[in-house]
Amino acid sequence: MTVTISIGSGKGGTGKTTVSANLALLLARTGRKVCLVDLDIGGADAHILFGLFEPKKTLTDFLTRKVNTIAAVAHTFYSFNGLQLVPGTGDTLQTANMTYQEKQRLLRALAKLEVDVVLIDTGAGTSYHALDFFMHSDIQICVTQPDPTSIMDFYTFLQLATIRKVLGSFLSQSEVGVTLKRHNFKTLSEVIELAEKTQEGAKEKVQQALKYFHPLLIINRDTPNSGVNKTKLKKMIAKYLGIDVPELGEIPDDTHINQALKAYMPVTELYPSAPSSIALQKIAVKVDQIVDLFNNHSSPQ
Ligand SMILES: Nc1ncnc2c1ncn2[C@@H]1O[C@H](COP(=O)(O)OP(=O)(O)O)[C@@H](O)[C@H]1O
Ligand SMILES: [Mg+2]
């Protein structure tokens, strides 16, 4: 079976693409068939990290219906353990205004990829596209930096992702679903309050929907004095969202990352013993185990 992993963040520049590209490569090195999909619409650049400057085909070819499968636009890097990459698309009117139907077509096509792991580099921020791509996967990973502004942006992102998860758990035709969709909620407690007013027992349904929502956290560009902000973040998430966000790892601020970028190679390939590479390798081992757990848990008895 295919396990999908999405990488998201509250704002751009937190290191999503660095993490996605290196994780994809490290997972491919374990022998898994991996496809990295660049869904950062408008900010797609994962191909650059692998030295692929002008991809012959990109996601645009799929979105404009020149081809009908995602596999048809995937590029295989034979020099990187057969890792596949679906290069992203520029910010065209077509992609920026993707309709619900077009998004569904894309998600259906992604599900047909014949690989072990699909890794999705999603766009930053809280647009519906970014949130939907982030939430659509089996495993969600969030990347944030430890400074107060990034932490706040990350918290807002997670809050909206949680609200969307809760809204999705109610049928759109149902009384609760219709009521919830009419409002533009800013906090999870507003959602729960109104849901409970509309339908008795809605609160339990919300809690049920969030029971298996455990986005995994990566702190990137970690610095020695970032502990206070991380503690605050964890308290805020527990208090206001009531979800558990296990920490997957911390990646130190490391100049090797930009040196590797300038050489158009993933840092774990070019400088495997750099501090950031060691952190990424540790993270990849954990993700590999989580993929195994997921496979074992989901396989028919
Ligand atoms: N741990 C790190 N140490 C130093 N530079 C980093 C680190 N992580 C990312 N960068 C740099 O930060 C910039 C943004 O990273 P990127 O992965 O493109 O972020 P995003 O995809 O979230 O926009 C890039 O120039 C990248 O090389
Ligand atoms: Mg990026």
Structure description:
The longest helix is centred in the last third of the chain and has 24 residues, at 275-298. 50% of the residues lie in helices and 15% in strands. The protein has 301 residues and is α/β, with parallel strands linked by helices. It has helices at 16-29, 46-49, 59-63, 93-96, 100-111, 128-135, 148-169, 175-182, 188-198, 202-211, 227-241, 255-262, 267-270, 275-298, and strands spanning 3-8, 34-39, 75-77, 83-86, 117-122, 139-144, 216-222, 247-252. The protein folds into two domains: 14-137 and 255-296, P-loop containing nucleotide triphosphate hydrolases (Rossmann fold, 3-Layer(aba) Sandwich); 141-253, no CATH class. An eight-stranded mixed β-sheet has the order 3-4-2-5-1-6-7-8, sandwiched between helices. Magnesium ion (MG) binds next to helix 1. Adenosine-5'-diphosphate binds next to helix 1, strand 7 and helix 12.
The CATH class of the largest domain, by name, is Alpha Beta
Query: What helical percentage do the residues reach?
Result: 40-55%
- For the CA atoms, what is the radius of gyration? 19 Å
Strand content: 5-15%
Number of strands: 8
User: Largest beta sheet: what is the strand line-up?
Assistant: 3-4-2-5-1-6-7-8
Number of helices: 14
What summary fits the major beta sheet?
8 strands, mixed
Instruction: Give the bound compounds.
Output: adenosine-5'-diphosphate, magnesium ion
* Uncertain residue ranges: none
Which structural class do the helices and strands define?
alpha/beta
The assigned CATH architecture of the largest domain is: 3-Layer(aba) Sandwich
